[in-house]
Amino acid sequence: MPDQEDLTMNRMRLFGELLADVHSDLFAFIYSLVQHHADAEDVYQQVTLVLWEKFDSFELGTNFASWATTVAHNTARGFIRSRKRNAITFGDEVLDAIAAAHTAKQCWGATDTSEALSRCLKKLTDRDRRLVERCYSPDSNFTRIARDENRTVGAIYQAICRIRKNLYTCVKRTMTKEGTS
After folding, report:
1. DSSP three-state, residue 75
2. Contact 166/158 with Cβ under 8 angstroms?
3. Is the pTM of this model over 0.85?
4. Cβ neighbours of 37 (radius 10 Å)
5. 63: how many CB neighbours lie within 10 A of its CB?
6. Burial 160-175 (b: 16+ CB within 10 A, else e)
7. Are the C-beta atoms of residues 174 and 116 closer than 8 Å to each other?
């Protein structure tokens, strides 16, 4: 009969394996919500702590990625609400839309989705495509982008929100046409 130490080690190993499998997607999802790399790292750490604390309630054999994404969504939402340093943040409606897009991505094949997104990105105007590239680059800085574009930070966030919504609709439509949704 395995002793308590063996059970704890097996539990830790299993948690580590499950978390490693979803790490990249989970971090990307969190980043899409908080929009700052350092904040995404902080929220990711909070999420992993919550996941570990609640791991006993996770039902083995169910979708760990979905469970972790739900925890990340709620943790990021709390983080954004408590954040005071940035007056412009996404509202719950936008966060829910991003979460829905992420969930849809998990349901569709990643390759199919990437191909559809690539085609949809090509349909954007040059200005919108450049804005997406700048906002999603690793060293993105919305204040600098706004200054360079001669727009307010709020206008940049609104433009990105509009573009994301259009891309989501385009990808969804493309996937449905191709019968992969």
Report:
1. helix
2. no
3. no
4. 13
5. 13
6. bbebbeebbebbbebb
7. yes
Tokens 């979905």 identify what position?
66
- List the beta strands (DSSP E) in the chain: none
The predicted-structure confidence for 78-127, as pLDDT tens digits, reads as follows 888 777 555 455 566 666 666 666 665 555 445 667 788 888 888 989 89
Which residues, 6+ apart, have CB-to-CB distance to 58 below 8 Å? 51, 64, 67
Is 77:92 a contact under the CB 8 Å cutoff?
yes
CB atoms near residue 108 (< 10 Å): 17
Render pLDDT for 117-162 as a digit per residue (tens, 0 to 9): 888 888 989 898 888 888 777 677 778 888 888 988 788 878 888 8
Structure tokens at 169: 């609709």
Query: Who's near 129: CB < 8 A, 6+ residues apart?
Result: 121, 122
